[in-house]
From TrEMBL:
<keyword id="KW-0472">Membrane</keyword>
<protein>
    <recommendedName>
        <fullName>Resolvase HTH domain-containing protein</fullName>
    </recommendedName>
</protein>
<feature type="transmembrane region" description="Helical">
    <location>
        <begin position="6"/>
        <end position="21"/>
    </location>
</feature>
<keyword id="KW-1133">Transmembrane helix</keyword>
<keyword id="KW-0812">Transmembrane</keyword>
Length: 114
């Protein structure tokens, strides 16, 4: 009986000592997660700085001509494309005039530009 108690006690001491030298896997995983989160925070910070710089550049370069659309130019482009597609489909100039509500001179001008 005494030998059993002594053996169990010595085994407990040996296992206790081994537990100090054994690596803790949880600490290793926690360290990896911490490094990953630090890396993500750094990247987010850099992205925020870049976005802020871009926003400042946009505000500095802000000019009304960048934000206003020339309606005559865009509508002329749309009309020209529409007139060209109708002309290529074989519509006559009178039919194009009726479909687009443009004058004959405007249609001739748009076709001559193309």
């Amino acid at each position: 009986m005494e030998y059993t108690i002594i053996t169990l006690f010595s085994l407990a001491i040996i296992l206790f000592i081994i537990s100090f030298f054994k690596k803790d896997r949880n600490k290793e995983v926690e360290k990896q997660i911490e490094n990953f989160s630090i890396t993500l925070m750094q990247e987010i910070y850099q992205l925020k700085k870049k976005v802020k710089v871009l926003e400042e550049e946009i505000l500095i370069g802000q000019d009304e001509r960048y934000f206003t659309v020339d309606q005559t130019s865009s509508s002329q482009t749309i009309d020209r494309d529409k007139v060209l597609s109708l002309y290529e489909e074989g519509y006559s100039l009178d039919e194009i005039e009726d479909l687009t509500n443009l004058s004959r001179e405007q249609i001739d001008q748009l076709l001559s530009e193309a």
